[in-house]
Design goal:
The chain is an alpha+beta fold. The chain folds into two domains: about 130 residues, Helix Hairpins, CATH 1.10.287; about 160 residues, Heat Shock Protein 90 (2-Layer Sandwich), CATH 3.30.565.10. The strands form two sheets. Strands 2-4-5-7-6 form a five-stranded mixed β-sheet. A three-stranded antiparallel β-sheet has the order 1-3-8.
């Protein structure tokens, strides 16, 4: 009996500490930690608890940042719309095709932002649908590039596609999502590439994999910034920033789509002075 009481206290103390810490976590205080000095099962449980608390704390910080970023991004187009409409109502600005066009442009920007947020939210919930079928990725790429040629011509940016006409690359994929992926990358280059620049789109084959490359000209992105380009709302300071109209969601959506197709996507310095995006699809059947 005399020996059992100290032993019981030794076992009960860390359990009580863990129960109290669990209550703190349940109350939303994710910075709570448990002291862990022993190497027994209770010590391992305490370390696992601390690891869980760290993940919860990190997720909570990201959630709060996510909400703050959404609020910030929505505030800008809403404020512009409000200001424009109030100016029209007060008679400060006349109702002209130009003012209507300006309002329409801000509405489109807001709609695009909300749609991007919706797509990312669906992806996070695992509810973003993919209707996969065996299709030719290169055919989708050719169609996407062709649909954007006129936009690149307006900005005097040379757009080239280097893929053999007879080449086919068959994969199990969702045609609509692949088109969304390629259009996002084309739009990204269109926004940020300087007037008179160029965008080269090409493909490489080897070892059952297909690599698609988007290489644009200046401005470039430093290595430190390139590592964060797939983060939501992240924009590079300077040339590739908000001034070009992006919200910093396009590449995040691209990564979600590529991941859903069990592929890979990465960004590098372009030989043309801008950004180079690599997309890799595996288990590809080549024809032609």
């Amino acid at each position: 009996m005399l020996i059992s009481f100290p032993l019981a206290r030794r076992l009960v103390k860390p359990i009580k500490e863990m129960a109290a810490a669990t209550h703190e976590i349940a109350s939303g205080r994710y910075a709570t930690r448990i002291s862990s000095t022993s190497s027994d099962e209770l010590g391992q449980l305490a370390r696992d608890f601390n690891a869980m608390a760290l993940i919860l704390e990190k997720n909570e910080k990201e959630r709060r940042q996510w909400i703050a970023d959404i609020s910030h991004e929505l505030r800008t187009p809403v404020a512009v719309l409000q200001g424009e409409i109030e100016a029209l109502l007060d008679g400060i600005r006349p109702v002209t095709p130009e003012t209507i066009s300006s309002l329409h442009a801000e509405t489109l920007r807001l709609t695009h932002l909300v749609e991007d947020l919706y797509q990312l939210s669906l992806s996070d919930l695992g509810a973003l649908t993919y209707r996969k079928e065996n299709l030719d990725v290169l055919d989708v790429l050719r169609s996407s590039v062709q649909s954007y040629r006129a936009e690149f011509e307006k900005k005097h940016i040379a757009l080239s596609l280097s893929i053999p006409e007879e080449a086919e690359a068959i994969v199990s994929a969702d045609r609509g999502r692949l088109d969304q992926l390629f259009l996002n990358l084309l739009e990204n280059s269109l926004k940020y590439t300087e007037i008179g620049g160029k965008l080269n789109v090409g493909a490489q084959f080897g070892n059952g994999a297909l690599t698609i490359e988007f290489q644009d000209s200046e401005p470039g992105v430093c290595a430190e910034d390139r590592e964060r380009l797939f983060e939501r709302f992240y924009r590079v300071e300077g040339s590739r920033n908000r001034g070009s109209g992006g919200a910093g969601l396009g590449l995040a959506i691209c990564k979600k789509i590529v991941d859903a197709h069990e592929g890979g996507i990465s960004v590098h310095e372009s030989p043309l002075g801008g950004l180079q995006v690599h997309i890799v699809f595996y288990q590809v059947e080549f024809k032609g």
